[in-house]
Design brief:
The chain contains 3 helices and 7 strands, in the order E-E-E-E-H-E-E-E-H-H. The chain is an alpha+beta fold. It has one domain: Nucleoside Triphosphate Pyrophosphohydrolase. The strands form 2 sheets. A 4-stranded mixed beta sheet has the order 4-1-6-5. Strands 3-2-7 form a 3-stranded antiparallel beta sheet. Helix 2 packs antiparallel against helix 3. The protein starts with 12 loop residues before the first strand and ends with a helix. The model has no long low-confidence stretch (mean pLDDT 94).
Length: 153
């Protein structure tokens, strides 16, 4: 049986981001400054620009939001979410590595208040206190921590 177009779901909004670990195994999160996202923590990520590859968007967003040049080490997953208006979004995420001699300094200071590394337990506690931007933030961090552990064996 051929599945017709009724089985297709169009998702126009795309985002890309990175889960970045430091040498101690902590995960980098950024605290947002703007709009309804202000004060919430999330992985470095953002919208994919027209004509931009998903990978380049993830690299660009990390550089803009943290000041770090990273390398995409492993594809993590694509998370399907939705905005308040119901529009669907695909969030593509990679596990990323960086040279820790780089300074941690957001370039988009009008958008990002700070960038800090947290342990997975601290991130879980932040979720319970409703300090993470979305449920996907927790899922991304937990899945990345598991992948990192699996790769180290």
């Amino acid at each position: 049986m051929q599945f017709d177009k009724s089985y297709h779901i169009e998702v126009a909004a795309k985002a890309a981001g990175t889960v970045v670990f430091d040498a101690e195994g902590r995960i980098l999160l950024v605290r947002e400054r703007l709009s309804e996202k202000a004060g919430y923590w999330h992985i470095p990520s953002g919208s994919v620009e027209n004509g931009e590859s998903l990978e380049n968007a993830a690299l660009r967003e990390c550089k803009e939001e943290t000041g770090l040049d990273v390398t995409l080490a492993h594809y993590l997953d694509t998370y399907v979410g939705k905005f308040d208006d119901g529009e669907l979004v695909l969030r593509h995420v990679w596990l990323a590595e960086f040279d820790d001699s780089q300074p941690l300094k957001p370039k988009l200071e009008h958008e990002i208040a700070e960038a800090i590394f947290f342990s997975i337990d601290e991130i879980r506690a932040m979720y319970e206190k409703r300090q993470l931007r979305m449920h996907h933030t927790l899922l991304m961090c937990e899945q990345a921590a598991q992948l990192r552990a699996d790769l180290s064996h």
